[in-house]
Write a structure and sequence with these properties.
Layout (H helix, E strand, L loop, with lengths): L21 E4 L12 H4 L2 H14 L4 E5 L2 H4 L9 H12 L3 E5 L19 H15 L5 E3 L4 H9 L10 H26 L4 E7 L2 E4 L4 H10 L2 H7 L8 H11 L12 E5 L5 E5 L2 E3 L8 H12 L3 E5 L6 H20 L4 E5 L6 E2 L12 E2 L5 E2 L5 E2 L2 H10 L16 H4 L69 E4 L10 H15 L4 E4 L3 E3 L5 E7 L2 E9 L25 H9 L7 E4 L5 H6 L4 E6 L13 H11 L2 E4 L2 H8 L6 E3 L6 H10 L7 E5 L8 H10 L4 E5 L16 E5 L6 H6 L3 E4 L14 H7 L4 E3 L3 H7 L3 E3 L3 H11 L4 H14 L2 H18 L2 H7 L1
Parallel strand pairs: 1-2, 1-11, 2-3, 3-4, 4-5, 5-7, 6-8, 7-10, 10-11, 16-17, 16-21, 17-20, 18-20, 21-22, 22-23, 23-24, 25-26, 25-28, 26-27, 28-29, 29-30
Antiparallel strand pairs: 8-9, 12-13, 14-15, 19-20
Length: 865
Amino acid sequence: MRPIDAGSVHPLHPLPDVGRTFVGGFESTYHPASGVDALEVTGHVARYDEDLDQLLAGGVRHLRYPLRWHRIEAQPGVFDWDETDRVLGTLRARGAVPIVDLVHHTSYPDWLTDGFRDERFGPAFVRYATAVADRYPWLAAYTLFNEPFATLFLSGHEALWPPYDRGVPGLRRLLLSVLPSLSEAAAYWRTALPDAHHVWVDTAEHHTATGPGVDYAALANDRRHVVLDLALGHDLDLERPFLRELVVDGGEELLTLPPLRVDVLGLDYYCHSEWFYDEHGSHAPSPHPVGMADVVQQYAERYGLPVMLTETNLRGLPSDRISWMRYTLEQYELALSRGVPLHGYCWFPQVDSADWDSLLARAAGRVDPVGVVSLDADGTRRRTEFTDAWERAAAGAPVADLPAVRFQPPCDEQLQGLLPSLAHWPWLDPTPEQTVPALSADLPTGRTGSPDLSDHDLDTREHTMTTLPSSAVPATTEPTQPDLVVLSHLRWPWVWQRPQHIVSRLARQRAEAGARTYVVEEPVVADVDTPRLGTEEVDGITRVWLVMPVADSPTLRSEAHPADRGFEDAAADCYGALLAAMLGERALPPDVWVYTPMAFELAQHLEPGRLVYDVMDDLASFKDAPEGLVLRQRRLLAEADVVFTGGPSLDRSIRKQRTTGVHLFRSGVETEHYAQSRLLRTEHERPVAGYVGVVDERLDLDLLDELAEYLPDWTIRVVGPVAKIDPADLPRRPNIEYPGMARYDELPEVMAGFDVALMPFALNEATRSISPTKTLEYLAAGLPVVSTGVADVIADYADVVCLADDGQQFAAACRRVLLDDPRARDRRARPLQARQEWDHIASSMAGLLDAARSAGAGTRAEETA
């Protein structure tokens, strides 16, 4: 089917005139792992007539519309135009002007198996873009690649989308793959469709800071412009901080790209487009925003181009969306009054999107409540008061005539920084009809990592997505679950392991029900006069620790961490009272989750509704175990409502002390996170045998020394913090490296530098019951594993892990496993990984805790009788 003949359609005008003209838009992002895109999940593919009718009935004639490359060219070089012909033909016949969007985020064909990094991407993209230009020469406006900075940043710098690359090197690789082909495609369109307008669409960001965040804000403010600057050949000054990093990393070729032409700069602005950095880390939305008008004006003045607001929305209730539309239209008109040439306002998308809770990695059909028209669970389109308000605004209603309804949770907290600039509004309180009761949601899959500034630096709307079970955001007045208080001997920012994986997931689930999660750490001493609590908001939890005067606790607990104390420290008796006061009165008593028996008295002080003991290690067998640990563990096992164990050996030991209410959960893995390592692997001069983890008395240091001796042509790399042993006792040889601790988000790249993964554990009391988390992590990274004969490793992984006893055997095994078939190893490991994903473990634990809660107060007495 060819496009409709030009004689039967209305003339097309590339852009609206300068002024407040509304533009429509439809969300289509495709994630290769799910196999479906947002147009399919929301039902637009089948209901496009209905959706277009609603949009056009509002008087809108210009709209951003996606072309689905992944469906058009499902096989290399074979194009299926039927659907595209049908929809574009309908739009043209009805006098609409589509701004076609050729690639929206990761919407490329599945056969590009390495995504933007695939060596076939550039030629394939040019072939596809050329074919679109040839087939639809009547198009008046186009976007060749939507949000190139945001897309390549998430795919190449933050490893959130395929090909899951990381850091400046990852972003450089993707830029070198994408920008030359984008330049070539733009040149073809300029020749083939000389009257059509190239609309470059990307995020409109702004970064501010105080104190330690100032330098990072400067870097981020430079980074936000770098992709468009490279594409235009604009302001390529190597004194710029981020551009310099990119070039020093090997990106010199990016400075010599043929400049492409942009006719209109499309800016996507959301409440979290503005970031603020201080001594506590990063904050988005910014508590001190400069406002949309200022941000848009900055971009317009920098590039001297006509601009368009190509995306904005707010994830919230219809009344919240109305108030956000009022704000952005007010700012839009303010920018116009300053002379900014704005050519259109686009609330994006027209119909609710879906599945942004997992960044589209899971096609679960969860509605994202952001659209002009809302979606019900069955796909039915539903008008709301926001639909009515949008239509009035599109028809030209003055901004002052739109309702100003106070924002509801969570929008009220997110938008606190805007309120001073809205003091002139005639605010209305939401009516009962404008609120909804709190709703429970399934545990979402999310990204976890250590609380580093760059780890939170996801300068796009996707980072703040919340899981939604329906087309309305929960507005929690009272929590439907109790707060969760976790008592841990491990500090949250330290090595990312079992507590962080489980608690971060439980925290997201609790937040959906209006509850908070606190991780309470061991006390520290500092130069303070009286004991006080320290807190930090990070990774969706509140860290809490007691700060005690030095004079109150003169005995040093550890030379390695002289400020650390234990929960049992006599000077920490006030901890419980201070913590209870901080938590305040609650409608529901908190659930208390314990990782160390030494916190038993503190747990009792909190009067928990349910008490959980997650036994991740046999702490009594560790070096310098505190006195009283065994007795406290017996009491904790007797009192706990639910007990979880971290491995088979530990489970058998615990069941000798308690026979009911004990559940085995081996430590898990976040397979997708470690799978990035396979793509990051590069050639290196010498083979590397590597270990990742805490370096303590559980490692066989003599074995490491022997291994280095028997593998003189290899590098032995031991990555992790040293704890509870003297660093002077570590073996020292020219081929042994100790690079120190790596953050969780760095581990895939660290493991990419290994050829063989090591588990050189000593066989002693401290390792009698361990079930190493790193086993599955190594396997997910695609590495062969060599281990000593730890009981749980033999029981669970004998078919996929090579076992050895001493340095000579380890060395021989390292050489041998290099010859193994990695595909066969993956086949054996896959069933183990599937049953031990952290998402599944956390949701299963949550279910058991809910069952214990519903069992009533008599459960504990029955279990301990």
